[in-house]
DNA sequence: CTGTTAGCGCGTTCAC
DNA sequence: GTGAACGCGCTAACAG
């Protein structure tokens, strides 16, 4: 049988209350007594039963998710996953709330964080807008003891406890190798469609992509990046225009707004053999993968990201370790054969 | 505040014990009383607190993992993941034991299952050898109420509650498309190295592979399958021998024992440009991917499989639902750029 | 500073 | 058939 608080109380010759004070690092214990108790804990190999403790405390984990108010499939999916997590809340003792902030607006995000730092959430997960002022507030909150996790997009050089998202440089590199290998000996130009170079994930994907292209596929030239603002209409216009260039043999779409890309491809490239790699599995990209308009999709699993953020925030709130491998968000590569 | 057993007892005008009998479907309650209680449960939206119940019962989940005694990196990794799970046992209330059986030996597996069915494990996870007699025992045990999960390799047409492994047909298809696309316009022959056609995962990978090859890459011909029994030595011999054929342009290794494959490739194919796809990320395949001996690795995350099997077995033991998306084992595709 | 006591939500004897 | 009472491992008043 596992030792309990009673056992260490007996072994240390003190009462339950004292053991509890030591366990929860509360004041009001002489250091001599404290050390007796700690010795007993070590000798008996005591492991605290978190479930019992939470039961006694009636504990719940108040968590806040801060999301950009963006109207694209990926964000809708992320929202849906959070709603699923809310459904599971009773069983997981979580109490989850979401807050929407204008996208790409550091000031708005900072305001929300300031507000939250006056409250008592035991954990915050946010899709970060990567700006110094956001980083500053986040760091201050971390120092004040708030567990903070970035979601999908990270905060450069911040103290956040964890990042629940994919390695975007690796994603860009992978896209480049896939495109290069699929094209084989063909030479030509590559069009790149991004959302905005103001977002860190997009910048990183581009960085990874261009470096592998330069190193390993010198026969392929990258055209100036098209910034579609993650908007299907803008993307459509830009891509349709670019496809006038007959030298293009491949396309890498590293942001959202793929509906516009797909439409442009179907209109303009019926007679061409273009190799296309895009990000995020949505109903649109899935259909395009199946009908061969897109050759491969790189994806991040929003469900995994949300569940991971919750596990990590709970663990941090309890001062516990996480299973690192379980919290690593994979870069999913989908061909038409391994779709979920 | 969430309703508790006290609330429904009060609402139904009965005592706690009666509520408990109804909740745990135990006899000794008149049907009138039972229905009163059930009505109260529904009306108050009662959700039982599993943690409190387990605390009261002092419950643990005795789980058994049955693994083949194979000496390859993948099985070593799987073992290591189970040991990690054993370390977490106190926190997860699990009590995990592993049993090794000779590989590819249905009779031995059946004997172990028979033995277990006389015991009281609340869940069994096994790397199944796909044979009718195994299926028969497993089905009987499922009917007797044992939660059973297959791990890595499934049991055709059985009643097992869940399969914690990748879709191997999809894996084979993905390998074929990757190989076909990487080879581009090149024509030639493809060598296939398997472990044994007695295990379902290998048969399925081959099936998926050959079908996509036939449908979409008619310029590539598949040579007769080499059965390396997942043994590095045997694999080395077979592959070294096969590479005497100068028409080979690609290799698909769908089993384990890749150390032998890699050695043969380095010895015999230094001067050739072979495209190679292999399964399972190990120290050996990882190194080979980095030095370009292998072009892509398809992988199943053993850690995910073990954690998933445990979650599912616990849920089944409690009659609870699982988060389907979380328990889906992805087919990981690794290029040298997205290694973990 | 330390100990006593009464729960948290549930399961399980026992009597009735 | 049904209910009262106690205990699971831990925390939180309140005494002392």
Could you write a compact summary of the structure shown?
The structure is a homodimer. Chain A is α/β, with parallel strands linked by helices. The first copy, chain A, contains 15 helices and 12 strands.
Structural description of this entry:
- Two copies of one chain form a homodimer.
- The first copy, chain A, has 340 residues and is α/β, with parallel strands linked by helices.
- Chain A folds into three domains: 5-48, 434 Repressor (Amino-terminal Domain) (Orthogonal Bundle), CATH 1.10.260; 57-164 and 302-329, 3-Layer(aba) Sandwich (Rossmann fold); 168-300, Rossmann fold.
- Chain A is 48% helix and 17% strand.
- The first copy, chain A, is built from 15 helices and twelve strands.
- In chain A, strands 6, 7, 8, 9, 10, 11 and 12 form a seven-stranded mixed β-sheet that branches. In chain A, strands 2-1-3-4-5 form a five-stranded parallel β-sheet, sandwiched between helices.
- In chain A, helix 12 (258-268) links the parallel strand 9 and strand 10.
- The longest helix of chain A has 17 residues, at 200-216.
- The model of chain A has no long low-confidence stretch (mean pLDDT 94).
- The interface between A and B is large, with 45 and 45 residues.
- The structure holds a DNA duplex (16 and 16 nucleotides).
Could you give the order of the helices and strands of chain A? Answer: HHHHEHHEHEHEEHEHEEHEHEHEHHE
The average pLDDT value of chain A, as a whole number, equals: 94
Our Rg estimate of chain A from Cα atoms comes to 25 Å
Structural class of chain A: alpha/beta
**Structure annotation, total helices of chain A:** 15
Describe the main β-sheet of chain A briefly. 7 strands, mixed
Largest interface: A-B, 45 and 45 residues
Strand coverage percent of chain A? 15-25%
Number of domains of chain A: 3
Assembly annotation: homodimer
Per CATH, the architecture of the largest domain in chain A is: 3-Layer(aba) Sandwich
């Amino acid at each position: 049988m596992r030792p309990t608080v009673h056992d260490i109380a007996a072994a240390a010759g003190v009462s339950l209350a004292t053991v509890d004070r030591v366990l929860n690092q509360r004041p009001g214990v002489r250091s001599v007594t404290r050390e007796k108790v700690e010795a007993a804990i070590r000798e008996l190999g005591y492991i605290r039963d978190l479930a019992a403790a939470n039961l006694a405390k009636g504990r719940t984990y108040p968590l806040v998710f801060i999301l950009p108010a963006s109207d694209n499939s990926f964000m809708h999916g992320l929202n849906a996953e959070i709603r699923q997590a809310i459904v599971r809340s009773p069983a997981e003792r979580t109490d989850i709330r979401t807050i929407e902030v204008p996208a790409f607006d550091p000031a708005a995000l900072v305001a929300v964080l300031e507000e939250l730092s006056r409250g008592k959430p035991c954990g915050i997960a946010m899709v970060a807008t990567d700006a110094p002022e956001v980083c500053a507030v986040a760091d201050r909150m971390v120092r004040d003891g708030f567990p903070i996790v970035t979601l999908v997009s990270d905060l450069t050089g911040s103290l956040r406890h964890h990042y629940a998202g994919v390695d975007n440089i690796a994603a860009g590199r992978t896209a480049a190798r896939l495109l290069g290998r699929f094209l084989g000996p063909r030479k030509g130009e590559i069009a790149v469609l991004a959302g905005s170079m103001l977002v860190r994930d997009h910048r990183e994907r581009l960085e990874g992509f261009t470096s592998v292209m330069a190193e390993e596929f010198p026969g392929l030239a990258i055209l100036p990046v098209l910034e579609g603002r993650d908007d299907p209409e803008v993307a459509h216009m830009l891509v349709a225009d670019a496809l006038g260039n007959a030298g293009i043999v491949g396309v890498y779409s590293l942001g959202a707004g793929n509906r516009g890309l797909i439409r442009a491809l179907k209109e303009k490239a019926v007679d061409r053999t273009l190799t296309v790699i895009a990000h995020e599995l949505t109903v649109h990209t899935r259909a395009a993968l199946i009908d061969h308009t897109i050759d491969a999709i790189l994806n991040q699993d929003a469900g995994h990201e949300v569940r991971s953020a919750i596990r990590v925030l709970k663990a941090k709130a309890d001062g516990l370790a996480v299973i690192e491998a379980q919290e690593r968000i994979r870069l999913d590569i989908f061909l038409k054969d391994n779709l979920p």
